[in-house]
Specification:
346 residues; alpha+beta; 11-stranded antiparallel sheet; two-stranded antiparallel sheet
Length: 346
Amino acid sequence: MKKTVTRLADGRELLYFDARDDTVREAVDRRPLDPVVSASEIRHDPLLGENVAIASHRQGRIFHPPADTCPLCPSTDDWQSEIPADGYEVVVFENRFPSLSGAAGRCEVVCFTSDHHASFADLGEERAALVLAAWTDRTAELSARDGVEQVYCFENRGAEIGVTLAHPHGQIYAFPFTTPRTATMLRNAAEHRARTGRNLFDDVLERERAGERVVLDGAHWVAFVPYAARWPYEVHLYPKRRVTDLRGLGRAARDEFPGIYLELLRRFDRLFGPGEPPTPYIAAWHQAPATHPGRDAFALHLELFTVRRASGKLKYLAGTESGMGAFMNDVSPESAADRLREVASS
């Protein structure tokens, strides 16, 4: 892999990731851009003990542009996008409308392919491996920055999720705090260790691997629908050897990941039968915080879920979920696992 670091016209960092070491990236951003001015700040909620990012400048971000003015497509003679090159493999750049910025963290955009009409599931294994390498590179670099506590790599796919740009892409947030869900996992892991002397993630994985909700079982990864799934179709993907973050994955696990992950995404697109629009989903990497005293007990894993519960029907966060954080799932995890096994590639 070759990484080329450059700058956009307003000073934001842009990085090309290419499979070939001899790839040359010399395109220059010629747009007359002013430096980005963001107004993000972190405010603490004392009742919940959680932090909230306030980013009012994001109200003006680009919203569903036509394909010929997509800011994530390669630049052409007629259109200068966020990416100066006329073609690319994987690109990462600082978000022009960040939720987190400066001392309050950093937000990056990850473009998986220059093909506007593709999706992650359409990528080949070599490209998926390059995306994994980019996620790992960014995790390593951002985790080492002063003030960064947790690196979160994720993809939102589909207008139903709230995506404002159709081009296949994900994001990376470098949080200046431990996120609430991660803090809860770490607290429960510490309590489990004190009570049993064992690692909570190891025990959960052992129970799930022995159960009826396993969807894919590879040599180095296992994917399952969790016992207490919150979403209609939700899959957790774990490396069988526990590591704290993407940097800890060994060569064998890295080599197997593209095939198993692409198969999961393709099954999600087949869940609701032929003729259905692409399945909206969120794919979220859970990694240990950089400096948390309990980080060594954490287990890297990916959570993949969709808000679509049936053909033409979405699961909305209603009063119990939005108001109280108490989830109600209309699809049993066991039937979801059955369906995900049924739609395997032939």
